[in-house]
Amino acid sequence: MVGHYLKTTALALALGGWATGAMAADPSLDLVEPLAEYKLYVAENTAKLVEDTTAFTDAVKAGDVEKAKSLFAPTRTSYEKIEPIAELFSDLDVSIDARADDYEQAEQDPDFTGFHRIEYGLWEQGSTEGLAEYADKLLADVKELDARINGLTFPPEVVVGGAAVLMEEVAATKISGEEDRYSRTDLWDFDANFEGAEKIYELLRPLIADDEADFTAKVDGNFAAVDEVLEKYRSADGGFVSYEELTDTDRNALSAKVNTLAEDLATLRGKLGLG
Amino acid sequence: MNDQGRLSTTRRTLLRQIGLGALGGTIAGSIGIHARAQDAKTAPQVVDAPPGHAETAAQHVPFHGRHQAGILTPRPASGIFAAFDVVVASLDDFERMLRLLTERAAFLTQGGEVPARDPKLPPADSGLLGPVIAPDNLTITLGLGASLFDRHDWLAGLKPARLQRMVQFPNDALDPALCHGDLSLQFCANLPDTNIHALRDIVKNLSEFLVLRWMIEGSVPPVPPAPDGSTPSARNFLGFRDGSANPDANDAALMERVVWTHGPDEPEWAHGGSYQAVRVIRNFVERWDRAPLAEQERIFGRTKMTGAPLDAPRASEYDVPDYAADPDGATTPPDSHIRLANPRTPKSERNLMLRRPFNYSRGVLRNGQLDQGLLFIAYQADLEAGFIAVQNQLNGEPLEEYIKPVGGGYFFALPGAAVGDYLGASLVNAARRS
Amino acid sequence: MTSPSKGIYLAIAGAAVLAVAGGAAFWYATQRNAGTQTAADQLVTVNATTCEPNAITVPGGRRSFEIVNASDRPIEWEILNGVMVVAERENIAPGFRSTLEVQLAPGEYAITCGLLSNPRGTLTVTPSDEAAAAASEVTLRKFLGPLSEYRVYLVMQGNAAVKAAEALRDAITANDLEAAREAWHQARLPYRRIEPLAYRFSDLEERIDARAAYLAGREQDPAFIGYHRIEYGLFAENRTEGLAPFADALVADLTELAARLKQAPLDPGLLIEIPGESALQIAQGQIPQGENLYAGNDLQDLAASLEGIGKLAGLLRQVVAGVDPALDKVIEQDMQAAEAHLAAIAAEAHPTYGDVPKAARDALAADLTRLSESLRKLQPAIGMN
Prior knowledge:
The complex is a heterotrimer. Chain A is mostly helical. Helix content of chain A is about 65%, strand content about 0%. In chain A, helix 2 (about 30-60) runs antiparallel to helix 7 (about 130-150), helix 8 (about 155-175) runs antiparallel to helix 9 and helix 10 packs antiparallel against helix 11. Chain C folds into three domains: about 30-135, Cupredoxins -  blue copper proteins (Immunoglobulin-like), CATH 2.60.40.420; about 150-260, A middle domain of Talin 1; about 265-385, CATH 1.20.1420.20. Mean pLDDT of chain C is about 85; it is low at about 1-40.
């Protein structure tokens, strides 16, 4: 029993300060600050998600199709930014963000709920009829998510690995334009996924910048390149135009950057001793 | 878990991979080590890897040379053709991409050990070939599409004279998801896994520059060699031998004329390269299998089993049909595939090309029919005189009832790279000068 | 064209040596080989409606799963602990396979099988030496989550303390005695929650939480400022006049405290130390004597303190659970006992803390002492001497 805590050099060093040059491959106490900052970032976003979802579902329940449509994409961004954490709660991830093709009967499936079910109603059916129950459930789910996330101790590897997870998410299901298939507001989600990944990277960057100048320069460059492409698709209201306006050239550019970011950000865990 | 069994199985696999199974077994057995496990486990287990061949695994094709490998190289059993969109912002980017691509292709085709990395990081290699990569006859052939030249002004004026976007022929039903591309890579190897490994390596290492647009995997059935060492042309999925009339790739002078791009109207940098015409040609195999044999043979103009011309059914596939003796096509119909494609006239000598196709099988279509066909790949010095002219001659042929081209594209296979140089260096240098 | 590469030569030469050398070398070679090529521990085939197998049992520890998508849609495969995703592989295309390696503690898990509407399978992880060893190994990594979470708590409660003090100041400035009294009650709570660490900034502690009893001039001492000076004004002198400068100073000091807490270096030793110490202080100080002498609302403060200790204890229990489950259980029980006892006393509706009988105070103090002793055992279990 007595020997437990001696098993790990890193812990012994961190606590006792016996020697310098702890194994670089083990995690360091320096991670505490970015991990905490990230939780604060997530907490801000879930608070905003509750606020925005309240307005969105109010519009749905008031039968105001146009207003609901205009609030759909901006409301989702708070969710998309924090997806690595949000999707830890599988029941809520499913009821909030599942897509029709996750279900046997697709759009007609009684279990199809959440943002995309309401999106389907608003855009495909052009009406809020029958959406009230989905709106109530969505708001309740989002509040529940907020409460659960506030009580959660974030697993460090999920936070650090989250940057790459967001990029994999974009590469696998966003670049193909299948996420917001009825509203074509995919670029909003893109942007939010990138912002969420960049936030994690920015928080961790001070811990890796010293001896990894090539790495950080490359990642910085790729995030900047993504921003540059997305900026072209900004709409007048600060949002984004339809996914259908994305040119093949720009889609390819995004795809290449996303995959390269995914490759590079996948090494963050290893670099920070959380492999 | 049975550790004993697991160890000995692994050991046997290790030995067999390097062709020393019998030797190792004898020696280990004779000194009494693991004798019991050895006896109990000699019989292969169901999930053992199928026995490979050390000799073919070690085959390698030199990467460097005046021309790229994978064109005149005898075609091995497996191929992948992959077309990419290229994301480069500048000539410098383009050069970085070509250098990296060259580095990866040179490594993969020559084989070697995968570098070890800290296990906390994603591994450097997919690992699907294990810790040591055997070359396995792999070639990787790089081509560029017209769209790449058209899009970048720093490549202006450097496009090979006949490089163009493939246009629809009358029988085509082109699927945009299977057409064109800025860049092509042809992977050929003895085993499909070697190609898949190479493709994954490229996709991983060049993600910054290359976005996969479409790909087709293909194969050709191996045939045991005759006593003199020769093998016939491989059969396509219609059951006919394909490639009988190919020009002789060992005839260097002929290849200079037929395959390697030359001539004053082609940019200097492109000399020694070759136009690559690729077509994904679906075969309606169910329907074909229901067509009478005589009709099948008339449509092709060859005997199905031997490949011999119809006017000499007992001859071999390499015998040349005598169309002069059959002007009306009573024996070999004028609209048969081989007669239209190559009328064997002095004039048709201009239209020669070197075909290097694979068969593909991609599962099932919505209508329940098999999605099978020919991954047609041909190389020629002049795209217009080669594939385009021949295809125009073939338009309307009776075979069209059984085939449907659904994809493909035209590319220019770059000249080869000398040792220490990279593929496409002549193009980059030309762009820097202009 | 057929000259073998250098690597192949090496492999052949190496194998010949191995073959001659026999047992030991073989063992080494196969171990290495096994390390890179071992198949997954468990194959799971996901078809259109179920997983095959649908009920899996594996020993605890680091396990690998090879998931084969035999359905005609892309799938994700997840291991769930209740509603929490333990590990997942997403976007496995039809016909493709994907390998997932995950550290599994003994217990019952669910697995998803393709479509969300498909019934879930079960994953039973049985106890094993490997799992026990992994759980009992204390690494810095296991502290990272709890340390970060405590930092978040410090930041959020620190900010809440500033906000509450601002509300108190506003009520004082508005000369609203009743509102100011209520605001004072509320203003104490966030501070009490983070006091286990906050009190260590002694310069601020003296300004924020000074008590007349420790000052030469008692209530008239110029150093008597902060919460209790305001309390004295509102509850003993029954007025707001003259309190505004104290309220402004409190806001400023708490703002400084929040900034320092945000940057306070946290380490496992500190995290282990502070809850037990805090529980003991309360048991020996505030419970017998009371602290809010003028407002008399100590029960409210004590509840907030217990919340703060409970936060720390909960975080540490995440670390100790795998190492010493018995201690984990004891801490949980002691914590619950103290909370329940405090709630019972509060339910008796004593007008002020002074009305709480000594016997009840002693019993509560005993609870806190016991909790503190349990928390102190964390040090030998998961910390360093």
